[in-house]
Q: What sequence folds into this?
């Protein structure tokens, strides 16, 4: 880590301003487009400033897990392709991609956003699997929040394909959406020195002490969290970070289509 | 000799493969090549016609280390004989102990006292081999380690526009923002101001120059931009 | 005896007509050069990083820089099942022919021992993805300031039930009532050379030659579209 850069980022924050001129709790410009990938059953393109992520939903059918014979399944996967950043390398997903996919997955799964029981086709034999892939087009900070919003938007956009016996006819989509119970929104708060910020750019991510991703529901219930970074957090820190997450989730929720 | 035919206007944006001029009277220069009767562009950029010479001022591309260039570089490694330095190009450079300082450095001493990993420096390229092995020196006016401030990168092809004629553009920004600005030939720029707002305005101005470097009347436009922004604050 | 059954194309295009095309340059700010190229329902991104340091070292060429193209389909970009992430034999082969399609125009003599990485990523496909990828890569390389003798236009030609056609879409590639041949090609106009040629299916020599002429004409149109997209980036902002 570059100490000089860290000091400089903190110098800015001491003056209540970010490296790119924003306020501490200010997001970059957000845009959400859905139905952008015709080959996916559901899709979304989400931009936070220069960070752009596509999420696509594909359905598969298969045998349920023996311990939940009447429930469908979901898999969230992230491909940090080298096209989207000079920092990403070719090859199987590394720890950064795995953490990203798991944090996004947890926010949706643990909130009970999807009623997996409704994804059962034939008890013990055939269920739907929802696969959501996250692919950044340009990775420029805050992939956690951008990807979470993209995945939620893509799931809401998805339509089940028709089933021909036990095979999917991908050419024919039904009018049926994925049954949604909740709509969790993830907000990541970074701690740098004594400062808390949201929607970081890479210069800020590189010098963070700790981060906390909090997924919340409309009624402010917390449904998933992930603490990251090398330094620990005090209870006071956590309280403040959760409060910021809840406040900011209300703003971001407006973009969920 | 038969009079040739020019197919483009001066300062027009051209793309690789585009025929710029026909006839042997036109001579291909940088960024162009001759094929039969034609002078053809081999780079994206602004076509310039000087007499009968046709060339292209590129608008993009990475830095290629050149002897004598003053650049801003970053230490990536420390080894037995000195420092390995990132030049914002395809090629790393070497800064040896003897070119780094006139101090006598005892064998095995702590080199981080001079330059640590991730330190930035204004340095000069004093040698480039045919294989693009690059040697740096810190001996010369203005060459130094950079402390504080922030680093930004721009397309190296835009560096002349950011500096301006005899440094006119960069002086104008310095005056408006009271920032210290050092522009490396490799597209790495150092900005240091008294307060963050000044630095942010400088960064925004430099980005604007980079985006609009091909636009006519750029100096006036930037002056206007700076006036407007300074008044706001 | 070949019967001429394919009298009208399934999507109503003329036999030598391209699908609708959009092209945009500079879509990936992190890259040195980038582009998006969409033809019909097939969309390709390309990003160029480099010239940069090349690893592993043994790939280095002390005479000139190395061009390294990588073709990949995003997991949701296939018309049917999800595409499993990671390299496949297919994507490796397409990466190879993409590289060779572009290599004749690219000059990296000034950058020995370095690499220019070109990442081609398909976000949705409906046939013709390697050609769309090459068109995107051609624009991205120019945008990255790489020295190039020309732009490259890539398109497929082929046979659908005895008829020579340009730019097959998926329903034509999958045509059941007659033979289908798919011939992806890339053309470099200033050299009058073909740098990509593959054939999948049955085609007579004379039909192939007729198709190649059709493809060459189309490649020139594709290059005009690339040219316009590259220049659009420099339109004076208001």
A:
């Amino acid at each position: 880590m570059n100490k000089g850069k860290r000091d400089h980022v903190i110098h800015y924050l001491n003056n209540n301003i970010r490296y790119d001129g924003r306020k501490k709790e200010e997001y970059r410009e957000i845009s959400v487009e859905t139905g952008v990938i015709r080959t996916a059953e559901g899709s979304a393109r989400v931009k936070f400033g220069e960070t752009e992520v596509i999420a696509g939903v594909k359905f598969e059918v298969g045998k349920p897990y023996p311990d939940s014979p009447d429930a469908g399944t979901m898999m969230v996967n992230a491909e940090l392709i080298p096209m989207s950043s000079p920092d990403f390398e070719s090859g199987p997903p590394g720890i950064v991609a795995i953490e990203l996919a798991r944090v996004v997955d947890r926010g949706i799964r643990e909130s009970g956003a999807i009623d997996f029981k409704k994804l059962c086709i034939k008890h013990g034999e055939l269920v739907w699997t929802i696969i959501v892939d996250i692919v950044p087009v340009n990775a420029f900070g805050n992939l956690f929040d951008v990807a979470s919003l993209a995945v939620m938007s893509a799931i809401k956009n998805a339509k089940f394909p028709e089933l021909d016996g036990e095979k999917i006819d991908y050419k024919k989509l039904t009018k049926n959406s994925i049954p949604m119970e909740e709509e969790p929104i993830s907000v990541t708060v970074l701690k740098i020195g004594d400062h808390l910020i949201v929607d970081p750019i890479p210069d800020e991510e590189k010098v963070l002490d700790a981060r906390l991703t909090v997924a919340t529901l409309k009624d402010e219930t917390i449904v998933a969290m992930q603490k990251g970074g090398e330094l620990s957090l005090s209870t006071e820190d956590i309280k403040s970070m959760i409060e910021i997450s809840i406040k900011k989730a209300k703003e971001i929720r407006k973009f969920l289509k | 000799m038969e009079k040739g035919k020019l197919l483009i206007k001066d300062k027009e944006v051209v793309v690789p493969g585009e025929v710029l001029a026909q006839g042997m009277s036109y001579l291909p220069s940088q960024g162009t090549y001759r094929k039969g009767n034609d002078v053809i562009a081999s780079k994206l950029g602004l076509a310039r016609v000087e007499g009968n010479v046709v060339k292209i001022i590129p608008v993009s591309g990475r830095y290629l280390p050149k002897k004598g260039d003053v650049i801003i570089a970053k230490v990536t490694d420390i080894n037995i004989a000195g420092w390995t330095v990132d030049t914002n190009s395809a090629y790393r450079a070497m800064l040896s102990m003897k070119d780094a300082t006139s101090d006598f450095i005892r064998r095995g001493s702590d080199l981080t006292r001079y330059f640590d990993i991730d330190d930035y420096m204004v340095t000069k390229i004093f040698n480039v081999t045919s294989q693009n092995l690059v040697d740096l020196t810190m001996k010369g006016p203005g060459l130094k380690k950079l402390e504080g401030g922030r680093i930004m990168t721009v397309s190296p092809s835009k560096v002349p526009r950011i500096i301006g004629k005899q440094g006119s553009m960069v002086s104008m920004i310095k005056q408006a923002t009271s920032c210290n600005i050092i522009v490396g030939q490799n597209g790495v720029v150092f900005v240091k101001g008294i307060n963050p707002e000044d630095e942010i305005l400088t960064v925004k101005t430099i980005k604007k120059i980079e985006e609009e470097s091909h636009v006519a009347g750029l100096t006036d436009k930037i002056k206007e931009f700076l006036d407007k922004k300074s008044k706001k604050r | 005896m070949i019967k001429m059954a394919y009298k009208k194309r399934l999507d109503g295009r003329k036999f030598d007509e391209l699908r609708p095309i959009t092209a945009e340059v500079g879509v990936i700010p992190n890259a040195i050069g980038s582009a998006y190229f969409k033809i019909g329902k097939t969309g390709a991104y390309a990003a160029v990083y480099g010239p940069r340091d090349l690893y592993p070292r043994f790939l280095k060429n002390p005479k000139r820089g190395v061009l390294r193209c990588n073709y990949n389909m995003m997991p949701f970009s296939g018309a049917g099942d999800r595409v499993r992430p990671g390299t496949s034999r297919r994507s490796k082969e397409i990466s190879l022919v993409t590289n060779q399609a572009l290599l004749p125009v690219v000059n990296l003599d000034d950058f020995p021992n370095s690499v220019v990485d070109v990442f081609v990523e398909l976000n949705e496909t409906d046939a013709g993805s390697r050609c769309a990828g090459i068109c995107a890569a051609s624009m991205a390389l120019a945008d990255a300031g790489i020295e190039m003798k020309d732009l490259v236009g890539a398109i497929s030609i082929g046979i659908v039930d005895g008829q020579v056609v340009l730019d097959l879409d998926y329903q034509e590639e999958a045509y059941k009532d007659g033979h289908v041949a798919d011939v992806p090609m890339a053309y470099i106009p200033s050299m009058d050379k073909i740098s990509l040629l593959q054939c999948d299916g049955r085609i007579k020599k004379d039909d192939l030659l007729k198709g190649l002429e059709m493809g060459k004409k189309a490649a020139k149109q594709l290059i005009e579209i690339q040219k316009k997209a590259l220049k659009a980036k420099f339109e004076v902002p208001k």
In short: The first strand of chain A starts at residue 30 and ends at 34.
